[in-house]
């Protein structure tokens, strides 16, 4: 079964606005990662946050992690049309090794 | 570096036919993975190989077999294709076990249609 569930399933914003998407997961984790997938392409890693971290930044990306609520959020600031893609969270369960479990994704549409 | 490559890019099969999806990586990664992606389902892990010489089942292994041919190559075989296996298949690799190296690198995908 899917470990992560993203919310919302789809998001449409205008260029320059901020986009926030959320991920909830079920079990204790070591790390949580966010990936982007452009239409028809493979996934590309964006950012990793460890279970002992609460917030992490990378360029226009800000990720938060609340392990007590088993949730994470990805904020994209000052969005661009090129940010149009699907975004997935992925977790690796504490006590397991070598594999990730992906959520169902948020489809982001950024319009001019 | 080509990263992760997959062949073929697109394939049409008839029910009952067999085929092998090929995957290779040139990043010297120890771990490799096969996923399938269906609309609205995200990625589901079929099989993975944590290191050369080992393979393990993922979430949806039924109807598939894998071979970790060497450190670079990890193939996925459908012995008797079924329409339910129509999907987009992604191969990925990672250098698991090294601090900060748990990110996965994905290939471009193989689109499989089973009639």
Describe it for me?
Chain A is mainly beta and 112 residues long. Chain A contains no helices and 11 strands. Chain A has strands spanning 5-7, 10-14, 19-24, 29-37, 43-50, 55-58, 61-66, 71-76, 85-93, 101-102, 106-111. In chain A, strands 2, 4, 5, 9, 10 and 11 form a 6-stranded mixed β-sheet that branches. The model of chain A has no long low-confidence stretch (mean pLDDT 92). Chain B is mainly beta and 115 residues long. Helix content of chain B is 0%, strand content 50%. In chain B, strands 2, 4, 5, 6, 9, 10 and 11 form a 7-stranded mixed β-sheet that branches. Chain B is globular. The model of chain B has no long low-confidence stretch (mean pLDDT 92).
Fold topology:
The complex is a heterodimer of chains A (112) and B (115).
Chain A: E1 5-7, E2 10-14, E3 19-24, E4 29-37, E5 43-50, E6 55-58, E7 61-66, E8 71-76, E9 85-93, E10 101-102, E11 106-111
Parallel strand pairs in A: 2-11
Antiparallel strand pairs in A: 1-3, 3-8, 4-5, 4-9, 6-7, 7-8, 9-10, 9-11
Chain B: E1 4-7, E2 10-13, E3 19-25, E4 31-38, E5 42-49, E6 56-57, E7 64-68, E8 74-78, E9 87-94, E10 105-106, E11 110-114
Parallel strand pairs in B: 2-11
Antiparallel strand pairs in B: 1-3, 3-8, 4-5, 4-9, 5-6, 7-8, 9-10, 9-11
What does the average pLDDT of chain A come to? 92
Work out the helicity level of chain B: under 10%
Largest sheet of chain A: 6 strands, mixed
Largest interface: A-B, 25 and 28 residues
């Amino acid at each position: 079964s899917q470990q992560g569930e993203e919310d919302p399933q789809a998001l449409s914003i205008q260029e320059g606005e901020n986009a926030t998407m959320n991920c909830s997961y079920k079990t204790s984790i070591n790390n949580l990662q966010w990936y982007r997938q452009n239409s028809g392409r493979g996934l590309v890693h964006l950012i990793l946050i460890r279970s002992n971290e609460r917030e992490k930044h990378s360029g226009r990306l800000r990720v938060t992690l609340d392990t007590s609520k088993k949730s994470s959020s990805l904020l994209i600031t000052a969005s661009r049309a090129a940010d149009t893609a699907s975004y997935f969270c992925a977790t690796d369960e504490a006590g397991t090794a070598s594999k990730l479990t992906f959520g169902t994704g948020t489809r982001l549409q950024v319009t001019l | 570096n080509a990263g992760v490559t997959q062949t073929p890019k697109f394939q049409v099969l008839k029910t009952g036919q067999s085929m092998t999806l090929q995957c290779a990586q040139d990043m010297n990664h120890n771990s490799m993975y096969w996923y399938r992606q269906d609309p609205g389902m995200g990625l589901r892990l079929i099989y993975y190989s944590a290191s050369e010489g080992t393979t393990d089942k993922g979430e949806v292994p039924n109807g598939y077999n894998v071979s970790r041919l060497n450190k670079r190559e990890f193939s996925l075989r459908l012995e008797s294709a079924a329409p339910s296996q129509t999907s987009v298949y992604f191969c990925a690799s990672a250098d698991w076990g090294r601090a900060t190296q748990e990110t996965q690198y994905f290939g471009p995908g193989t689109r499989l249609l089973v009639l």
